[in-house]
Amino acid sequence: MKINNIKKKFPIFKKKINGKNLIYLDSANSSQKPQSVINRMSYFYENEFSNVGRSVHTLAVEATNAFEKTRDLVQKFINSKYREEIVFTKGATEAINLVASTFGDKFINKGDEIILTELEHHSNYVPWHFLRETKGAVIKFSKLNDRLEIDPDDISKLINNRTKIIAVTHISNVTGGVTPLKKIIDIAKSKNIPVLVDGTQGAPHLKLDMQKLDCDFYAISCHKLYGPNGLGILYGKKNWLDQLSPYQGGGGMINEVKKENISYAETPTKFEAGTMQTAEVVAFGESIKLIDKLGIKNIYDHEEKVLNYGIEKLKRDNNVHLIGSPKEKASVISFTLKGIHPHDIATILDDDGVAIRAGHHCCQILHEKLGVPATARASIGLYNTLEDMDILYESINKCKKIFS
Amino acid sequence: MKINNIKKKFPIFKKKINGKNLIYLDSANSSQKPQSVINRMSYFYENEFSNVGRSVHTLAVEATNAFEKTRDLVQKFINSKYREEIVFTKGATEAINLVASTFGDKFINKGDEIILTELEHHSNYVPWHFLRETKGAVIKFSKLNDRLEIDPDDISKLINNRTKIIAVTHISNVTGGVTPLKKIIDIAKSKNIPVLVDGTQGAPHLKLDMQKLDCDFYAISCHKLYGPNGLGILYGKKNWLDQLSPYQGGGGMINEVKKENISYAETPTKFEAGTMQTAEVVAFGESIKLIDKLGIKNIYDHEEKVLNYGIEKLKRDNNVHLIGSPKEKASVISFTLKGIHPHDIATILDDDGVAIRAGHHCCQILHEKLGVPATARASIGLYNTLEDMDILYESINKCKKIFS
Amino acid sequence: MDIKELYKEIILDHGKNPRNFGKCNGYNADASGHNPLCGDKVHIYAKLDKEKKIEDLSFEGEGCAISLASASILTEIVKGQDYNISNIIIRDFLNMIKAQKKISLNSLKEDQITTMMSLSGVKEFPMRVKCATMAWHTLSNVLEIKKK
Amino acid sequence: MDIKELYKEIILDHGKNPRNFGKCNGYNADASGHNPLCGDKVHIYAKLDKEKKIEDLSFEGEGCAISLASASILTEIVKGQDYNISNIIIRDFLNMIKAQKKISLNSLKEDQITTMMSLSGVKEFPMRVKCATMAWHTLSNVLEIKKK
Ligand SMILES: Cc1ncc(COP(=O)(O)O)c(C=O)c1O
Ligand SMILES: Cc1ncc(COP(=O)(O)O)c(C=O)c1O
Questions:
Q1: CB-based contact B390:B313 (threshold 8 Å)
Q2: In terms of CA atoms, which chain C residue is nearest residue B270?
Q3: From D36, D127, D128, residue closest to A254, measured CB to CB
Q4: What is the CATH number of domain C3-147?
Q5: What is the best residue among B29, B116, B200 to mutate for testing ligand 2's pocket, by most ligand atoms within 8 Å of CB?
Q6: pTM of the model
Q7: Is the CB of A373 inside 8 Å of chain B's CB atoms?
Q8: Stretch A29-44: mean pLDDT
Q9: What value of ipTM does the predicted structure carry?
Q10: Which of B58, B269, C21, D16 is most buried as measured by Cβ atoms within 10 A of its Cβ?
């Protein structure tokens, strides 16, 4: 499969926005879906739908098999040691909440410390903040360097014998900076501290290998991976997941229920309470297949070409200020434009069919540091092209003209 | 729209199971989806997809509007006073967990009591059991009468000044019994005790009117309402929801995020953390439209006809033992067959294309009371017909022949 | 709709050079507004006299051109009006943006109405409605608080 | 596949009249299995002698015809075998159900193999595989525990 022609596989690009072609540069927010994913979901509902894991009739059997097959695909995709290490969640947000809540219950007490960074998305801060409120935990923010990169040395300095967990993003959804995870995990391991990686932005762009990376938890949002809404994945080392208590209670996650007591199922079932997102899980298998067919390395190379081309163009414009200058950077260009608020940029770009995001991108800590309430963000997916960057550039020029 | 022809709107019924027509009698587990819901979801992904509530570009605006329109539809559907009383969740299970967790945090302390019934689904027991484990709460099970009905008088007797909440199902997913909610809520209100209703089985069959019913919380599963997987609804009185803390933390549910502190958004936003199930919510609007077009009362009447016809037929067979004999009963026939285990029944019925469920139906407390580990359950949806009951009956006869 | 209908000269002007910016002297009522999704903020300061007139009115805030222009225009038009008229102006403005109704206030001058109407293009841009209305809602809060 | 391939005479017979039901006298090893999704339960009791032979073997349990028949057949065939052979029988049985392999044990008699193979129809009914295999996994646990 050729990546150059890939836009054709995503039906939304047939759509006109204000009479113009859609230039979708909001994939860090949520990516568009290929026809194969959409069709798989429809086909499932039209021909195979049933609840999984509960009934013994033919439809239920087929649905359960299709559901569990995706678990196998995910296992391969992220190269986890056991398939039981894959928990399906509502999204990366739920995945992180699951860990913060259950790990916190068991291992975090008053005065214990959690290390985050100034780059974290609210989804990798608010769940930990809850532990501050309920348990009296302490949150320490590791400071970014001048390039707005996460600095393993700074994290190292924050560690002490009260440190219970380090939670860090894989790729920043604002700067695009790629976190030097290996260094951080080595430091943490040497002190026996578990590491949760918010892989929401990492998974769509980087080759994942849980056994090599050796983190303890890794959170993924399927809707940013060209998959359906309402689905995420928590990877957790089996040893950890086995130790943690269930997160939500309900059908399917139990072993035995008595009036006086309840015992729970094994990992990962104990974390999958209630009716799961069967159709979404089944359809997500097609996302993985697409990525595998293209090759994640090819996707990365292609996106890098588009990214660098876009950055070079924007850099030529003195009115454009790029947010952060991480040495290793993937897929995101955040910027401000002198004298024009990001919201106005976004509205004017939209008039040209260019969809970007303006705001704090759920990273208020970072924006406080930057001293601006909002930035504009163009984020790149596998379907974006050099031409998209040209149109972005022209549209930014139009902003300047309107505001001149 | 005629209910007699409604099977045609559900594409799965074109499917053959072992060469036979599909007789789907597992709707209490999950219902099949009409073409309109499936198409709405595909259309959304193909033409309108974007993340909601975050970006200002055209797609995001359209998606947000479509998303919020469903909230309006749900408000009307259940006649809640405010649209802010509608919270979208992953399912009824998450809805109940949300209440148990946040209500429990705030209002339940050691020794405080929670009243459930012997009829509850695990999803309306395990979340409360967590409070027993973490907080030392006490759970009291209201006893069923001989017909396996919930008895308001028994609930009344269990109430004392430590009672903090009553959580009760609207319709039993095993007996089909309709709970005398009005009586229970009157009793509870007179003592100022909030009531959570597990409406998972109620919503697909009964006219809902939150203002009339006057319960404090009501949980719904959209996938049992002919809607997409992975979506549920929590109705909560605004006054309660305003008092409760957020459940999950993440993007979208905040007001302001600082390093030292975080303030949260208003109801219902504060309960909708992370990227929501946009496509599912939008498509669920079509489920409501279908139900409204048919009329929930017509659906109920039709299902009642099918139900009574089926019951009468099965009653003629001395080997069939029906589970429970509630005076008011909807949509579910659970039974055992002398000398044949429910699993074997389900497998043999499946051979005839008849999809039922066998097991404890996530109601082990009830099954312990019954003294059997499993029952067979045929549950009825709006697409079922009298003929389906005939085929069920014949297929049960076949079971007996095989086992004779 | 043409994007220039949204970004009219007058809006760009108010956006770049907001009038009545800062805290007005002797203000005795104030309130703030905030859009958590985009980070826009506005703070309205009012000096209300005993005869229920808005003697002075100003604002501080940060946000897009639309939100700054809207706050600026608000202060220009409402300053000097009495309570009741102010509330009617606010209502008419919100109706114009949200329900596409015309402004028909006898107490406003022709050019004041034109100025207010310069923001009417916003109604075609649903995601920007909050930008245009936040200051007006906030003033409404100020008056509400003062009433109590 | 015909449903009668699953519910063969011999299975129905073992299901209705399970052999070796109850606790065998002098058992010195036992373990239980449970399928939480459907509520099936099995408890295996074994009397193991010093020469690593399964002197006596029995089970208790509740469940469908398949699971009872499977446990019953298991006790019939494995009783009297030594540890190693038992483990090979278990492996062969699981391979037959899960990987559709043939049973080819020299130490088993023709009719014993036929009896075991009566359960092979289960492989066409994936949701019933657990019913057929639970007792065998449980016996495997019994032997595992005893080894330690
Ligand atoms: C870095 C990062 N973490 C976490 C999230 C939360 O993901 P979701 O909203 O899919 O749960 C996002 C996406 O918004 C993100 O960009
Ligand atoms: C009575 C009852 N309550 C709760 C649930 C849980 O619903 P869900 O699995 O959709 O979260 C179910 C469905 O299985 C049910 O039947």
A1: yes
A2: C36
A3: D36
A4: 3.90.1010.10
A5: B200
A6: 0.95
A7: no
A8: 98
A9: 0.93
A10: B58
